[in-house]
């Protein structure tokens, strides 16, 4: 395996709704995911995040586990409805106290905190007023961001405004697979603009506080590979890149939407105000990149499929590690990037808990192989000149995997949801030893 710089950040990642539980504890308000999961037919196994990994009550144990992995950083999200139940108005001190205790425990273990402000759990009260289709939500988000930064901005290493706004917009409003469950492509475009606007407004609000935390955003990204060398497939791949990656990168780095995406999106609900791009185009201290797969683009009917030379994950996603190198090199060529963190990368495996010679164990060699290949691909990108400063495995724990419920396991740590017992998988031992050897 290649060697990484001594200053390289090694971490693990989670998100609030997926692990915390405590859905009604200590004044937390309902989020769109509470509403969505309690709506019959939305979640594959009919589960909810009401308890999840019970991290709200077990955070100290979980931080001890994080420390045992030799990582120096932990990426997690703050649940907006836990600290501001209605998304505007009064703050919930009990909610802030939870995150303060978590930060204290991380500091005790010398683990740097990397905070995400929004990992999809919009307060339901704001959704009742239109959610991300309502421009006012962007302004409310900026107020929330400033309050978190005021309280914690000098206690954390980084603050990301959003995690994967592509998913929030397209899966939440475009296809209905995720909360709030709207299926309207035009609504997805409108929501994406308000998400970007909220990012820019939040960046400005946090900058005014002069906090020590580095400020940025986390985007899920992929390359778009034409299935054949036909003109139709090549054009379709260019459109896919424009609609997915450039749609979010261009406003942040160039102050405009890509023309190819504007021509191929339903922009009938898109309302851009005079200074919007000035607000969105804020300097960021880092870019978080989440990478899981590439887009394999075919215009044939039915669409041509990739060869899956390295297999699939338990999500059905192609394992394509070289796509991480290709993505980072392409981003580096097309944009003037700040330092980059790989804020998510990981693999769902159909893990089985077994009794071994040393107790309970999970033999997940496919996940170890996945890690090796993607870390090698990441190193290749760094050798090509991309300034990548850290890697966060997704995820620390098996958890509530959105509309898949508890049927998909991404964690380095196996969670028995009946007992909440945590068991380090073989991949956790491998990751710990790999980091130790760096």
TrEMBL record:
EC number(s) reported in the record: 3.2.1.21
GO MF term set: beta-glucosidase activity
Domain of life: Bacteria
Annotated active site: 164, 344
Keyword terms: Carbohydrate metabolism, Cellulose degradation, Glycosidase, Hydrolase, Polysaccharide degradation
Keyword Hydrolase: yes
GO biological process per UniProt: cellulose catabolic process
Reactions it catalyzes: Hydrolysis of terminal, non-reducing beta-D-glucosyl residues with release of beta-D-glucose
InterPro entries cross-referenced by the UniProt entry: GH, GH_1_N_CS, Glyco_hydro_1, Glyco_hydro_1_AS, Glyco_hydro_1_beta-glucosidase
Annotated substrate binding sites: 18, 119, 163, 292, 394, 401-402
Family listed: Belongs to the glycosyl hydrolase 1 family.
Protein's name according to its UniProt entry: Beta-glucosidase
Organism: Pseudoduganella aquatica
């Amino acid at each position: 395996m290649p060697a990484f710089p001594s200053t390289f950040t090694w971490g693990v990642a989670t998100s609030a709704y997926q692990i915390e539980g405590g859905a009604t504890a200590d004044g937390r308000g309902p989020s769109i995911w509470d509403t969505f999961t309690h709506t019959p037919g939305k979640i594959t196994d009919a589960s909810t995040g009401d308890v999840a990994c019970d991290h709200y009550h077990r955070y100290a144990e979980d931080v001890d586990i994080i420390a045992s992995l030799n990582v120096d950083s932990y990426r997690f999200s703050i649940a907006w409805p836990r600290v501001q139940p209605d998304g505007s108005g009064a703050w919930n001190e009990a909610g802030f106290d939870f995150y303060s205790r978590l930060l204290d425990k991380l500091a005790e273990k010398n683990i740097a905190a990397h905070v995400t402000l929004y990992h999809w759990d919009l307060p339901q009260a704001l959704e009742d007023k239109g959610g991300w289709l309502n421009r006012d939500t962007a302004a409310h988000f900026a107020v929330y961001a400033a309050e978190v930064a005021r309280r914690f901005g000098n206690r954390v290493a980084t603050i990301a405004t959003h995690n994967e706004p592509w998913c929030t917009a397209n899966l939440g409003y475009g296809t209905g697979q995720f909360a709030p469950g709207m299926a309207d492509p035009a609504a997805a475009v409108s929501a994406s603009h308000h998400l970007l606007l909220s990012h820019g407004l939040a960046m400005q609000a946090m900058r005014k506080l002069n906090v020590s935390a580095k400020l940025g955003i986390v985007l899920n990204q992929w390359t778009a590979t034409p299935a054949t060398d036909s003109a139709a497939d090549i054009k379709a791949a260019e459109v896919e890149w424009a609609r997915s990656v450039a749609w979010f990168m261009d406003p942040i780095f160039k102050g405009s939407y890509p023309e190819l995406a504007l021509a191929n999106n339903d922009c009938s609900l898109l309302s851009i105000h005079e200074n919007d791009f000035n607000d969105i185009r804020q300097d960021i201290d880092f870019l978080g990149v989440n990478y899981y797969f590439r887009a394999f683009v075919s215009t044939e009917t039915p669409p041509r499929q990739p060869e899956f030379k390295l297999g699939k994950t338990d999500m059905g996603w192609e394992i394509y590690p070289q796509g991480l190198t290709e993505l980072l090199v392409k981003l580096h060529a097309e944009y003037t990037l700040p330092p980059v963190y790989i804020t998510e990368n990981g693999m769902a495996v159909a893990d089985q808990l077994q009794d071994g010679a040393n107790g309970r164990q999970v033999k997940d060699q496919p996940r170890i192989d996945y890690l090796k290949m993607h870390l090698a691909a990441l190193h290749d990108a760094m050798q090509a000149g991309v300034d990548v400063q850290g890697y966060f495995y997704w995820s620390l724990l098996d958890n509530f995997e959105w509309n898949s419920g508890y049927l998909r396991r991404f964690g380095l740590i196996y969670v028995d949801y009946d007992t909440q017992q945590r068991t380090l998988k073989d991949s956790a031992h491998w990751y710990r030893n790999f980091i130790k050897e760096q």
